[in-house]
Amino acid sequence: MNPPAMVLKWQSAWQSLDPDAVAALYAPDGTHMSDVVIKRMGRADGTLKGSDELRAYAQAGVAQLQSFRIDIIDVIAQTENKRGRASVEYWRVVNGDEASRKRVVEILEWTDDRIFACRVFHF
After folding, report:
1. What is the chain's Cα-based Rg?
2. Which domains does the chain have, with CATH numbers?
3. pTM to 2 decimals?
């Protein structure tokens, strides 16, 4: 497995627990959809739009975390020039609690090193 650079950048930003690094991943009108958004941000449709909303979401998450690790299992990716998309399957490990790790799949779409759409599925 050899993930595209954008997938590694995404992994690094989220693991850094730096809301600004997370926000910088997204295009100005980029979207992020997840069931966690419903719970954490009270958004009925589970969708955030834009780097400001992503920064607030990351800040709310960081307040609850001591550590966050993404252990990539598999990546299916397609890249062309400055555009790409990937399905990333991984184990999410929160605060070092290996026993409570969760399997997650994220579908990322990007252009010019900025994510314009992300959909997250927790199992």
Report:
1. 14
2. 5-122 (3.10.450.50)
3. 0.94
